[in-house]
Amino acid sequence: MLKITDLKKSFGRKEVLQGVSLTAEPGELIHISGINGSGKSTIFKIITGLLKADSGEVISGNEDIVGALIENPGFLEYESAMTNLRFLGDLKHRFDEEKTKDLLQHFDLDPDDTQAIAKYSVGMRQKVGIIQAVMEDQNIILLDEPTRGIDQESIKQFAVLLNNLKRENKTVIVASHDQIDEINYDQRLQLINGTLSDE
C-alpha cells in the first residue's frame, strides 16, 4: 500500500503542493488530472525520492518496489531498446529477459532490433519508458503522461497492460490529460491549487 499524507512543496515563493494526501491500495488504478505545472510530476518525484517534500509523509511497505516513468525518459541514446532495458534491469539484478521481450512485442517493438534508440520516434521512446516502469515486477507503478506521442493502437495496448496490472494486484497511478475509455479507474482525482480532490 502507498499512503501519502499532507505533502507540501514550494519552489521559491511558488507553493506547488499545499497538502496532498492519497491512499492507494493494491490492485487500484488511479488517475490524476491537472493542468501543466499543477504539480503532478512533483508528487511522483517525491514518492520516488528524486525530490524532498517540505513537509508531509510518504509510506509504503518494506516489500514494495516502485517503478516510474516521469517526464521524458532518458536512455543510452546509441544503444538498442533491449540493451537499454537490460542495463536498467541489471542495476538491481531484476532483469527478466523473457518478460521484457514479451512487453516489447506487446507494444509492437522488435526485441532483436539493433537500431539505436536515438532514432526512435517520441511514441516509441515512450513505450520503452512504460516498459522499464513495469518490467521488474514493480508493484507500485507511477506513469507521468505515459501516452504522450503514442498512436491510437498503442493506447489500446497500454489500456490492456494497465488492466493486466490491476489483475496482478499492482497499484498504478497515472497522471495525464488523456481520458482513455478502455481503462476503468478506481479513483479519478484532480490536482487543483496544490490539493487533490475527486473529479
TrEMBL record:
ABC transporter domain location: 2-199
Gene3D superfamilies: P-loop containing nucleotide triphosphate hydrolases
One function term, GO molecular function aspect: ATP binding
Keywords: ATP-binding, Nucleotide-binding, Transport
Record Pfam families: ABC_tran
Name of the protein: Multidrug ABC transporter ATP-binding protein
